[in-house]
Amino acid sequence: MGFLYLITSGSAVIGLGVATAVIIAIELTVFFNQQKSSLLANVSTQQDKITLKSNNEILENISRQANSELVYRVTLKNAPIGKKLNLSCN
Hints:
Blueprint lengths: L1 H40 L2 E9 L17 E8 L13
Antiparallel strand pairs: 1-2
């Protein structure tokens, strides 16, 4: 009878350990996702300009007939250092 109790209580301890590990993994995932979101929420544009690809001069007027390649240059403020950002234009 004592041996059966030992097996049952051992399974309960293993089950409790697995459940604890799963809960900790979920909490860590939520924590790191919130950290990433708060870092990205602070990123803003400090300076932006549209230039030709060939030079860095700011364009006041753009001629469609010139068929030039344009570049949108932006300087970010509060960007996380060493982190890759997925940027897009709307």
